[in-house]
Design goal:
Helices cover about 35% and strands about 10% of the residues. With about 600 residues, the chain is mainly α. Helix 5 packs antiparallel against helix 6, helix 17 (about 460-475) runs antiparallel to helix 18 (about 490-500) and helix 17 runs antiparallel to helix 19 (about 515-530).
């Protein structure tokens, strides 16, 4: 009788990423069962499906010295850190550790998704063996479709056109013998090529998954972290928005040299708006389970310190669910990239700190753009415009000089030139990421909170669905006051819902001080999702990277008494088009199969 062998993650990797108390992750590390036994009933089939969740990469927690700030949000001094490599265009370094890793040395990156795709296809090919209720069958098939689509989308968005693998191939490398730039006639009758051909397949699988999966799973706590109907609609919207963007439209030909006009595909944008609208309505109709967090609880989706609560909130739609906490978490993640001064805070002499360029993206509290002439200027109440008169999300995301992440004088940040904190760990800018670093969580003040801290970087949250909807409506119809679908909001309404949650003033249909609604949307995404990994995708998909080539990456120098504020250039950004619009594929794959050419510039 046919046997199926499947393996989860190596035990060494489990130590790195942490284990979960969630029941569905308690699957044997190795199993060998008869085909009928695995796929014949709901319980065993679900055990087979559960291994897929272990392949979802974590942007920080399974990483050493790398976060997901690939767009130049931060800068660092060590050449194995994201902040060092991002502004220098050293994409090959991304492939060795972190979310985009193609090796497993420091925990799996998203490239391991090829294995998950194979597992999902194996489940789908054996789906007819399952005996169970209609609800049970829907849950199984919905998860398999979601996972297959999710991993394709993540690889597609970073590496560019790939084949959509919808069957079990003879081995894990067979997908690289398939043509990268495929052709697909969608259910709507339109034929797509290249990037868009794959993305439309993602969208169709996500749509079917949304019709099969629960909106909310029974026993939500035990099943937290499972994919849902709402998450599937959200990913359908993202896949279509990305596919409709100028860069992806350009690479939607029949080959790497068959480049199309780099322009917005309004048809796909309209489909994206419809998916996002349906997702927003689903969230509103299920308000007990989903919703934008109030500003007072905004950080709950990024960290907790109570020792028991995992930071998975009503706003979190998808991510890697884990329960790693305390010193182990901080030492291997925040301490190796975001925290300073080991003796005081728990850092590890490696810092990636926000660049002055990224800090400048945050609007003023009145909605105006930041003007460099305000550097070091005080308002009538003696507050620095540059730090105290900004969009409220600025101080939620970033610590500045004289901020206190703790509760004693010893923990006051000294980020002026010559200050102890700035000198401690080769810190290049006077800023630290606050978003994932709770107040009072440090070695000096509160050992309990330090040891209880848990963190998460959401891979999809409801706020993104609002902004995807706003972008898609505007790009499809050219008017921010228009609506699509049944969510009841215009594109402008959706944006202002996110801004007003933070207490930031509303914008208008012309993008306010940005002078263009689309520019405002991209800036809004940079601010709302700062340090969550979105910025790199946005500057690529709208082909903004080439305009950033040679950009002076700056820091801010000033004295202890807050005088003589001066900008200083640290390095000039490297961005070569088209090279830096896509990651390089592992060289052995592109040399082995002519159907799978390397991305331009990485040959």
């Amino acid at each position: 009788m046919k046997k199926i062998f499947y393996t989860l993650l190596l035990s060494a990797q489990m130590v790195v990423i942490g284990t979960s108390c969630t029941d569905y992750l308690s699957v044997p590390v190795e199993a060998a069962k008869d085909t009928e036994e695995i796929f014949g009933d709901y319980y065993n089939f679900q055990g087979f499906v559960d291994q897929l969740y272990m392949y979802v990469a974590d942007p920080i927690v399974n990483t050493v010295c790398m976060d997901n700030c690939y767009g130049g949000e931060t800068i660092g001094t060590t050449n194995w850190s994201t902040g060092y490599n991002s502004v220098r265009g050293l994409y090959n370094q991304y492939l060795t550790r972190g979310y985009l890793s193609t090796v497993d040395d420091y925990g799996p990156g998203i490239w391991v998704g090829w294995k998950a795709i194979r597992i999902a296809n194996l489940g789908l090919e054996n789906f007819d063996l399952m005996k169970g209720t209609e609800e049970e069958k829907n849950k199984i098939k919905g998860q398999l479709l979601f996972m297959r689509a999710f991993f394709h989308q993540e690889i597609l968005a970073a590496w560019g056109s790939i084949p959509y693998v919808d069957k079990v191939l003879t081995d894990d490398s067979e997908q690289f013998k398939l043509p990268r730039f495929g052709e697909y006639t969608a259910k709507d009758g339109n034929t797509y090529y290249g990037y868009q051909a794959c993305a439309v397949r993602v969208a169709e699988d996500m749509q079917e998954a949304s019709e099969l999966l629960p909106i909310v799973w029974d026993n939500d706590v035990a099943n937290r972290g499972r994919c849902t109907a709402l998450a599937a609609l959200a990913y359908k919207a993202r896949a279509l928005v990305f596919a409709a963007s100028p860069l992806m439209s350009e690479y939607s030909g029949t080959s790497l040299s068959d480049l199309k006009p780099a322009e917005v595909n309004t048809g796909l944008m309209k489909q994206a708006a419809e998916a996002a609208s349906a997702a927003i309505k689903m969230a509103k109709d299920n308000g007990d389970a989903y919703g934008l967090l109030p500003w007072s609880n905004y950080s709950d989706m990024f960290y907790t310190v109570d020792g028991s609560t995992v930071p998975w909130s009503k706003e979190t739609l998808w991510g890697r669910y884990n329960t790693l906490k305390g010193n182990t978490l901080i030492l291997n993640t925040l301490g190796r990239i975001h925290l300073p001064d080991n003796s005081v805070f728990g850092g590890n002499a490696i810092n990636c700190t926000p660049t002055q360029n990224y800090v400048d993206l945050f609007e003023m509290d009145n909605g105006e753009l930041y003007d460099k002439s305000l550097d070091g200027k005080f308002d009538e109440n003696g507050k620095l415009y540059m730090w105290e008169r900004r969009d409220p999300r600025f101080k939620k995301a970033i610590y500045v000089d004289r901020d206190n992440p703790g509760d004693t004088e010893k923990t006051i940040l000294q980020l002026y030139i010559g200050g102890k904190t700035r000198n401690a760990d080769n810190c290049q800018t006077p800023y630290f990421i606050h978003k994932y670093w709770p107040w009072n969580c440090n070695k000096t003040d509160n050992g309990t909170e330090y040891n209880n801290m848990r963190m998460m970087v959401p891979l999809m949250r409801l706020a993104e669905v609002y902004l995807l909807y706003a972008e898609a409506v505007y790009q499809a119809l050219g008017d921010a006051n228009q609506k699509i679908g049944d969510c009841g909001m215009s594109a402008l309404d959706a944006v202002n819902e996110i801004r007003s949650r933070a207490g930031q003033v509303d914008t208008d249909a012309h993008g306010g001080a940005h002078g263009d609604f689309m520019k405002m949307i991209l800036n809004e995404r940079a601010v709302e999702f700062c340090f969550e990994g979105q910025y790199w995708y946005d500057i690529r998909r709208y082909k903004l990277g080439e305009h950033l080539r040679g950009e002076a990456i700056q820091t801010m120098d000033f004295t202890k008494d807050w005088t003589n504020f001066t900008r200083r250039t640290l390095v000039n950004r490297t961005f070569e088009a088209p090279k830096h619009y896509w990651l390089p594929f592992p060289t052995n794959l592109t040399k082995m199969y002519p159907e799978f050419p390397q991305n331009t510039g990485w040959e």
